[in-house]
Amino acid sequence: MSNQIKISTGEFIPLEMHKVRIVQKLNLLPVEERLKAMEEAGYNSFLLNNRDVYMDMLTDSGTNAMSDQQLASMMIADDAYAGSESFNRLKAAVEEVLGTKYFLPAHQGRAAEHILAKAFVTEGSVVPMNFHFTTTKALIMYAGGRVEEFFYDVASQVKSEHPFKGNMNIEKLVACIEENGVEKIPFVRMEAGTNLIGGQPFSIANMREVRKVCDKYGIPLVLDISLVCENMYFNKTREEEFKDKEPAEILRTLCDLADIVYFSARKICCSRGGGIATNNEKLYLKMRDLIPLFEGFLTYGGMSVREIEAMAVGLREATDFNMIRHSPEFIKYLVERLDAKGIPVITPPGGLGAHLDARGFLPHLSSHEYPAGALTAAMYIAAGVRGMERGTVSMERDPDGTEVPAEVELLRLAFPRRVFTLSQTKYLEDRIEWLWKNRNLIGGLKFVEEPPVLRFFVGRLAPTSDWPQKLVAKFREDFGDSL
Description:
Layout lengths: L3 E3 L5 E3 L16 H10 L14 E2 L11 H6 L11 H14 L3 E5 L2 H12 L5 E4 L4 H9 L3 E4 L20 H11 L7 E4 L12 H14 L3 E4 L3 H11 L8 H10 L3 E5 H4 L5 E5 L2 H8 L1 H5 L10 H13 L3 H4 L1 H15 L12 E5 H4 L9 H13 L1 E2 L1 E3 L19 E5 L7 H16 L7 E5 L5 H4 L1 E4 L3 H13 L4
Parallel strand pairs: 3-12, 5-6, 7-8, 8-9
Antiparallel strand pairs: 1-2, 4-10, 9-10, 11-14, 13-14, 15-16
Helix pairs in contact: 1-17, 3-13, 4-5, 6-7, 15-18, 17-18
């Protein structure tokens, strides 16, 4: 089942089940230039120029490697505004893979979330979920609702052997419905491969329990399948019932449990775009007329027909186990090596990326000094590796301006599918270990430019001391002229 191959030294290494045929040049700047680039970016990795990045591990969104079949499909695109055959091919793929009759295209995942929020969320709405994603929460709040997260305590534990930390807490879900009333809950949302707590999956057994609750109270169940490939991998490798099931059957099982399924194709399909799928005509009609208003006509939804063709192929490839296992097995390799060295990292290894525990890494920093943001900046300065802060910087302040500390402070190092090699992963491991040994040099950050919504995208920060300069000096002392 696994492509972790044992070599003659006794070590197990992940084996790539693809070959590289198109390459893109990378740059590794000297450490002094990396510091300058980080200063110019306001200590926000989103604002770095990609030409200054060696390993772009910010996200897997739109950065997964496309297959030769996807690239070839883009050449047969039907360039029609309405009634495009490209859309018909995508719709057929959606029906085949997800098992849904109705499909609404959108230009990306958050656009699909916008449609859901506009269609169903009103002032005072409460949306329960296993864990929020930043854009999901922001759009629900923008529509006048609020998000309630119901997870088990194990979800926020850094070190654990629990296989499904993304499970929804059923008891708390029921209590929320009873307390707020069915009329205030437009839908319940499950996120496959919970992004903000380390790419941790939920079990299908847990989703079945959520489905029972939704059926009892007559509430629609919405499933975000953007990271479902990784969730399926763990359903197959960790859930006894599904160990002999093919990914296609696992995916259909998940989708059949939901009333509405939506996704970012930038993740699940290794392409661009997104969409909403359902078998419920009433729910479909409630959303349909919003697509021409916000996205484009119903047969392109803000996407080019070439993107649509690539999405159709990518959706079918999302059920190829050799494709979906690549990232989780590289992540497992790195996480287990870091954990063995005592470096604080989220366990068990999840999907999407390796997640460093910034609170454990930098216990001398409080949440108000943004330890995950500081570790993200230090990672780029030390290695030219761009990760993403998934901590307090990624949270929204309360309406009165009070800072809301995150449940966990994480540096996410995403592993886009079929992108990085084992040698690059070993380089990353070495630089993380160097940072760990010099962690006391890393200081905090403060906001100097703070947007009121989704501040982690474009906000600017500054160090609270001269710690970045001290980090560079130590790097030169240890590595000499090496980059």
